């Protein structure tokens, strides 16, 4: 996927303004090679500094993943909704159990399509993001009202994936426009 310049989004967009940055940035999500659950990731910024950790739960019906800050403090749990017509994920805030956001799959032939909904922390208004992906290009675009706010890409053949079966995904995020801890697989 070609790198594009993303327009800034103002006010900041997300459920936790502490994770918004003042410039366009790229985050890289790398799956940990030797993980019992198979779903342990480290999310780093362009400088290689860890931003967020994600640990999968080995035995979980809801395919739960725990997201933590760099000190290991819990931020939220991402879960698969078990009874839903379309694939649905939701995030529960650590400590309160409050639903922070929901991501629902939508029917689409040949492409992946999801809708993420949440209440924006900076405006207290509901937000809907559309995620459209292409299986052949291994990329996705995240839009809000038709404006691109983030772009996701994944290498087709990298040694990490070929040898260890581990994924590496990048997400480019517009200035002050998206939270670092919302990087997701297309």
Automatic annotation (TrEMBL):
Pfam families: LOR. Belongs to the LOR family. This is Uncharacterized protein.
């Amino acid at each position: 996927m070609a790198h594009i310049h993303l327009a800034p989004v103002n006010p900041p967009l997300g459920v936790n303004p502490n994770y918004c940055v003042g410039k366009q940035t790229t985050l890289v999500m790398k799956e940990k090679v030797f993980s019992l659950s198979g779903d342990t990731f480290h999310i780093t910024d362009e400088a290689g500094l860890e931003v967020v950790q994600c640990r999968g739960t080995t035995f979980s019906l809801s395919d739960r993943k725990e997201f933590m800050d760099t000190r290991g403090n819990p931020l939220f749990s991402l879960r698969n909704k078990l009874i839903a017509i379309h694939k649905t994920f939701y995030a529960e805030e650590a400590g309160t159990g409050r639903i922070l956001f929901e991501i629902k799959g939508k029917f689409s032939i040949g492409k992946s399509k999801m809708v993420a909904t949440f209440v924006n922390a900076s405006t207290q208004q509901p937000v809907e993001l559309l995620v459209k992906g292409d299986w052949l290009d291994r990329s996705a675009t995240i839009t809000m009202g038709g404006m691109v706010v983030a772009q996701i890409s994944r290498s087709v053949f990298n040694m990490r994936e070929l040898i260890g079966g581990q994924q590496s995904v990048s997400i480019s995020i517009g200035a002050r426009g998206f939270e670092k801890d919302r990087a997701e697989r297309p």
